[in-house]
Specification:
Chain lengths: 619, 160
């Protein structure tokens, strides 16, 4: 047998696991046993490799061969052909019209990426401390503790220019300096892993894929500011991340990398994991602190800033997961190296969760200043199918939508903010022309109304009012002046709310009004949703010429609003139609069409009934 | 009936132990509530009062915390909680339709429990599996790219 030593890296990120990665791993063990080759192949479960859309994916070293969409049935062939005979299985490699990409680094998805925080994600076994150390792990901590003073560490951070990756973009060194300068009996450092933005999974992937890196970053920060206790605040929805961080803490303690007198430097550190309980507002630092204290997660006014009066009244720093993820590399490779990437005001790289109607969904890390076009079309591989790009939403419910004209905008804190969007934590949701922007804005508003903690009235009452207006617009009761009213409300809420949730909640509405005002106007004036997403502003119609009179639609209609006969064909009585779409789905000859706009019959019916159907009349 | 009462008291004992174990931690209330919900399936007033007494915290404060966080529930849940992700990515990829399909199949809406007590359907904010959108989660298993009624049926029928 010509077997050589092979490392088989199977991506066990959440995406690949739900695509069946664990079954494939089991199958590999079985097949290798059958071939008596278990000693020759090292099977490693790694964190997220990034291209979730190709999942389950795996990389085989020494060559770095990349396989995608692997099924348990493919395992036998991989073992007998690739491992034993040395002939990689071409059909499992990524292919496009022109080319086959056999090696991982050649895959277009990886081309424009530079991995710093994700350096080890998908490369090492996250449950092994040895593997982390083998890639240079804890070297930075050793250097910091033995060669640098706390002030040196802060100076180095200042030189790197690292800004908070949670969304605000506040320079990290300033927070550290403030806590360093403040006196307190105790100081605390908190890792904010309450990644609540819908459409974001960066923090989760880093915690799951490289937990020791986050721990190391936290300890460097703790040393710089003089904290001896750290807390990880992780969402309850991320059980694997919680397990991995707990495991990392236990391993580090066992190795003496945590605890008393680390590296004989006199520095002591301990950390604890606290889980969130499902409240979006707890991503806000004061709310998060109250939640750790076992209270309702209500935010409190700043100042006092947590750096002065935080957890249990003591000076506290709250940093995001990805921020910590950058720190070990900054100290290993130097602040200069870090600052050489990205833009002048936003150095370094940023991790994004690329999702929506884009071909390569997944986890990506690119230098700051990369344009949206590169991110969506080069890394993301462009739109799915023949669809056109319509908008991209950045920054979740606090961010805004950008359009085609912004595709050449570089992604950094300032340029996104100028255009009415924001970096946020890094969720990038790409939308095609089938998406209704008014409906998307309503979705975010609904989210913020649900998640508002209710403490301050602009957010609690104002957002609800905005939602009501959006609801009447999307259900065909919009009136002149609604757009201006939304803008007026939005601006007041931004100015008057207590915390970041309320201050940014109007952004999705304001940005869609700014760039898609015509869609709002069509919804209000023409009672028409061009994308046919808003049910009240579209209708179904049967094409008489194509209808074969089979009656399937009529039989499947839950409100019996379709009548007709084989000879006369079928028609929909628009007034009664609830737009469930059953007829559209069952028609065997596709004779039923979706049309934009409210049907004239419905318009007439509504005006006849007047107030009786307009539940928005009094608003 | 006697055995139910015995079971109940055993669960209370386990909870009391869990509280005892955490007495050195600072303010572990949320952890304790999480454990209590795991043990009882939900957090009725009696359980809250029990915790209040053991931890020496006003019951009103516990009630305040329980009602603040989405994760805690005061209503009994089914054997499995089916969480449909309502994050943006899933929304864009058709989560409302997925909710409709599941709801049609189970005959319950969001926040309700099936008659046989098997499933409680609820909506959550982003489970962080956006690349698989639309997604729903049962326990720790995530099911992605669910776009047909048949796929829903096939998955739900596995649970019993």
């Amino acid at each position: 047998m010509s077997l050589k030593h092979i490392d088989l890296l199977i991506c066990c990120g959440s995406g690949c696991i739900s695509a069946g990665a664990l079954k494939i791993k089991e199958r590999f063990h079985e097949v290798l046993r059958e071939h008596k080759a278990t000693n020759e192949v090292n099977i490693i479960e790694t964190g997220c490799m990034g291209p979730c859309d190709y999942g389950p994916v795996m990389v085989i070293y020494p060559e770095g061969i990349f396989y995608q969409h692997v099924t348990p049935e493919d395992v036998e062939e991989i073992v007998s052909e690739h491992f034993i005979k040395g002939r990689p299985v071409t059909r499992l490699m990524l292919q496009n019209e022109e080319k086959t990409f056999s090696i991982q680094k050649d895959v277009p998805f990886y081309q424009k990426q530079i991995k710093v925080a994700l350096e080890n994600c998908g490369y090492i076994n996250p449950e092994s401390l040895d593997e982390y150390i083998a890639t240079g792990g804890y070297e930075a901590l050793g250097k910091v503790l033995t060669e640098m003073s706390p002030q040196d560490v802060i100076n180095e951070m200042k030189a790197s220019g690292l800004r908070g990756r949670g969304g605000g973009g506040f320079p990290t060194y300033i927070k550290w300096q403030m806590v360093h300068d403040n006196k307190g009996a105790e100081k605390y450092i908190i890792c904010n892993a309450d990644e609540g933005d819908p459409g974001a999974f960066m923090d989760r992937s880093i915690l799951e894929g490289d937990p020791h890196r986050i721990l190391e970053g936290m300890m460097i920060g703790a040393y710089a500011m003089g904290a001896n206790m750290g807390f990880f605040y992780i969402r309850a929805e991320y059980p694997l991340a919680i397990k991995r961080i707990k495991m990392a803490i236990a391993q580090a303690k066992e190795m003496g990398l945590m605890g008393e007198n680390i590296f004989d430097s006199g520095f002591c550190f301990d950390a604890e994991v606290r889980t969130g309980a499902g409240a979006f507002v707890c991503g806000e630092e004061t709310a998060l602190i109250h939640s750790i204290e076992g209270e309702r997660g209500n935010p409190t006014p700043k100042p006092p800033y947590p750096a002065v009066q935080g957890l249990w009244g003591m000076p506290t720093v709250v940093n995001n997961v990805e921020t910590f993820g950058n720190i070990p590399t900054i100290f290993r490779k130097g602040a200069k190296w870090f600052a050489s990437m990205g833009t002048e005001k936003s150095p370094g790289t940023k991790v994004f969760a690329l999702t929506g109607d884009v071909r390569n969904t997944g986890l990506v890390e690119v230098p700051m200043g990369t344009t949206l076009r590169e991110l969506i079309f080069d890394v993301g591989g462009g739109m799915i199918g023949d669809h056109k790009f319509k908008a991209v939403q950045l920054g979740g419910p606090s961010g805004g939508c950008l359009t085609v004209e912004h595709l050449d905008t570089g992604v950094d804190y300032e340029s996104l903010k100028e255009r009415g969007s924001m970096m946020g934590s890094g969720g990038v949701i790409v939308m095609n022309e089938e998406k209704c922007m008014v409906n998307v804005a309503k979705f975010f508003m609904d989210f913020c109304v649900e998640e508002s903690c209710g403490k301050c009235s602009p957010c609690r009452i104002g957002l609800k009012q905005m939602l009501a207006i959006l609801e009447r617009i999307t259900s065909g009761f919009g009136r002149e002046g609604d757009i201006e009213e939304l803008q007026r409300l939005g601006e007041s809420i931004s100015k008057l709310s207590l915390c970041g949730l309320g201050q940014t909640a109007p952004n999705p509405v304001l940005s869609t009004i700014r760039y898609f005002r015509d869609e709002y106007e069509a919804h209000i004036r023409d009672r028409s949703c061009a994308t046919k997403v808003c049910k009240d502003l579209m209708h179904y119609q049967i094409d008489k010429d194509r209808c074969i009179g089979c009656s399937l639609c009529a039989r499947n209609c839950p409100v019996k609003c379709i009548t007709g006969s084989r000879e006369e064909k079928y028609i929909i009585h628009q007034v009664d139609c609830i737009k469930c779409g059953n007829c559209y789905d069952v028609c065997p000859v596709k004779a039923i069409e979706k049309e934009p706009g409210m049907h004239p019959d419905t318009v007439a019916h509504r005006s006849e009934l007047g107030k009786a159907v307009n539940r928005y009349e009094d608003l | 009936m006697a055995s139910v009462a015995q079971d109940q008291s055993r669960v209370y004992d386990t909870l009391a132990e869990a509280i005892e174990e955490r007495k050195d931690l600072r303010n572990p209330l949320i952890e304790v509530l999480r454990i209590a919900q795991e043990l009882f399936g939900y957090l009725p007033i009696e359980v809250q009062e029990f915790i209040a007494e053991k931890m020496n915290i006003p019951a009103s404060k516990i009630y305040g915390v329980v009602t603040f966080y989405n994760f805690f529930t005061m209503k009994p849940r089914g054997k499995f909680t089916l969480n449909v992700c309502m994050g943006t990515a899933c929304f864009v990829k058709g989560a409302p339709k997925l909710v409709q399909m599941i709801s049609d199949y189970l005959g319950v809406g969001i926040g309700e429990t099936t008659e046989d007590g098997l499933f409680t359907m609820s909506a959550v904010r982003c489970v962080g599996a956006c690349s698989l959108a639309p997604v729903f989660v049962i326990g720790e298993d995530a099911f992605g790219r669910i776009d047909t009624k048949d796929k829903v049926k096939e998955i739900l029928d596995r649970y019993e």
